[in-house]
Structure of Amino acid ABC transporter ATPase:
Amino acid sequence: MLKLEKVTVYHGDVLALKEASIEVAKGKIVALLGSNGAGKSTTINSISGIYRPREGAILLGEEKIHQLTPKEIVERGIVQVPEGRKLFPDLTVIENIQLGAFCKRARASMKERLEMIYAYMPRLYERRKQIAGTLSGGEQQMCAIARGLMAQPDLLMLDEPSLGLAPSMVEQVFEIIAKVNKDGTTVLLVEQSVHRALSICHYAYVLENGKITLSGSGEELLHNDELLSAYLGI
Ligand SMILES: Nc1ncnc2c1ncn2[C@@H]1O[C@H](COP(=O)(O)OP(=O)(O)OP(=O)(O)O)[C@@H](O)[C@H]1O
């Protein structure tokens, strides 16, 4: 579905990603792991069209997408839930969710999408008229995922969805991600919660200083403590 071929990204003079090759197969959950500053956000922001690779190619099927604008990339079904949720705190939950449907591909089926989202996250239905800034951290994360789902993604990219959440909330957020994937949405997941990410993903890549140093199935990496401690220090 999505392929990064030897993608190199600089921020000014800083090399953030070096010749990264990543494959996200349709219908799967792929995790991108690594410590702070490893290049995880740079990778998904490059897929979203926010950063332009200096070298390499990003392909969606046969189409090269690394020269497209973020808006064009959303219209192709690639949607990002950003790190830190980035909700509009003064708008209500429902207003935040509906903002996800600004793209053309989502407008026709808004009502059905909303019903589906409330079925995944009944708590958002209960809180739909609440001001988003007053939601708990976990509820805000759900709201950000809901806004992403409103755009009708084929590939949903989540940047550290468990960041700052209590363990029970992390569990709920991961359950929602698993359900969304089971219903056919491909997922690219950036996470620091390594064990949780490996237990849910089909395949994972480990980034270190902008380079992919390790990859394998979630199962394989989860049971390889030696590799995990060498590459992730856990
Ligand atoms: N806009 C920017 N300008 C300059 N340097 C940047 C910018 N964004 C990221 N970097 C640098 O690029 C490198 C990779 O950062 P990136 O945010 O992709 O890492 P990350 O793995 O997502 O880290 P974290 O888990 O802390 O979010 C880091 O050295 C970072 O300081």
The chain has one domain: 2-232. The domain at 2-232 is CATH 3.40.50.300 (Rossmann fold). The chain has a mean pLDDT of 91. The longest strand covers residues 14-24.
